[in-house]
Task: inverse folding
């Protein structure tokens, strides 16, 4: 009898914990969805951030931090992709030059997003009057990171560079700039709501 009472108690506690966890996760997921409505690519925003719901909870700053970190991860992946393309044999001289320029631009994107991730950490520890300074730096660097991505794509303009390299780069850079655009929208929304 004592054993079955213990098992019943254990089952009740497990059910309560599962229900509480699911409610917390659901709240975080709803929070992410509501904030992603402010972005240009809301479906991508939700898809890329929902996996981090337990970390984000309902924290606007953590949402922005996670969006920046996800963008940084995609920027590093894009930089690696472009670097590998520069190693292909048989590239036309203009393709190689465009790839080298793109590699530099995407490298700048990685650097600016890295700085933004670190700067946003200072927002949490800063005094109220310093908030605007730090968030302004983040907004500036993320905006510049998006411009870098667009500059990379622009390097492949013109019919001379049409082909698989161009389409591969464009696809990867469009994907990256969408993540960055979403992160910037979330940052702007966070800044407006904190002022």
Result:
């Amino acid at each position: 009898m004592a054993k079955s009472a213990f098992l019943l108690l254990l089952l009740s506690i497990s059910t309560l914990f599962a229900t509480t966890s699911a409610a917390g996760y659901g709240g975080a997921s709803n929070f992410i969805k509501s904030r992603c409505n402010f972005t240009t690519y809301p479906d991508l925003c939700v898809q890329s951030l929902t996996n981090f719901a337990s970390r984000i909870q309902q924290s606007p700053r953590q949402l922005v931090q996670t969006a920046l970190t996800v963008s940084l991860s995609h920027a590093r992946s894009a930089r690696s992709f472009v670097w590998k393309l520069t190693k292909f044999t048989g590239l036309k001289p203009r393709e190689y030059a465009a790839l080298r320029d793109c590699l530099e631009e995407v490298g700048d994107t990685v650097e600016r997003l890295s700085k933004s991730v670190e700067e946003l950490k200072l927002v949490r520890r800063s005094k109220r009057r310093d908030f605007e300074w730090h968030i302004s730096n983040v907004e500036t660097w993320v905006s510049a990171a998006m411009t870098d991505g667009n500059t990379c794509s622009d390097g492949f303009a013109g019919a001379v560079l049409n082909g698989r390299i161009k389409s591969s780069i464009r696809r990867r850079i469009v994907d990256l700039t969408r993540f960055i655009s979403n992160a910037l929208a979330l940052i702007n929304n966070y800044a407006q709501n904190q002022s």
The two ends are 61 Å apart (CA to CA).
